[in-house]
Specification:
131 residues, alpha+beta
Length: 131
């Protein structure tokens, strides 16, 4: 006697499809979280780079002897902008161990922060050298 042919199921069952969709949903959520973390990291990097450029500009101004960059030791904060970021900059001129050089300390912070985002130090000629 011949058996009737057994039907071979084509495709997935509903449970298999639901399990596959659940796995994809969990993986997608993880990928989205990773992408958001990466964007936040890049935003922070852009912010720190902008602050660094503002500090380097202020140090260059001090080295060139420009009044805006050479503020005394008790000076306050001045406003600056770079790449859509608003910054406050404080440049201080301090004595150094070498009497022919003055140390320049540039601090850059966001207006709503108390701690500097970037602190940059450099040296300029004190003008005491003679020929």
């Amino acid at each position: 006697m011949m058996r009737p042919p057994v039907a071979i199921p084509n495709g997935f069952t509903l449970i298999e499809a639901m399990v596959a969709m659940a796995i994809l949903a969990i993986a997608t959520a993880g990928i989205i979280r990773a992408a958001e973390a990466h964007v936040d990291l890049l935003r922070g990097l852009e912010r720190r780079a902008s602050a660094q450029w503002v500090a380097e500009n202020a140090l260059a101004e001090a080295g060139a002897g420009m009044d805006a960059g050479r503020i005394g030791a008790g000076a306050g904060w001045r406003d600056a902008a770079m790449l859509a970021w608003r910054w406050q900059v404080r440049t201080r001129e301090l004595a150094s161990a070498d009497r022919d050089l003055h140390q320049i300390v540039v601090e850059v912070r966001a207006p709503d922060e108390t701690m500097p985002t970037v602190t940059l130090r450099g040296f300029v000629d004190a003008g005491t050298t003679t020929s």
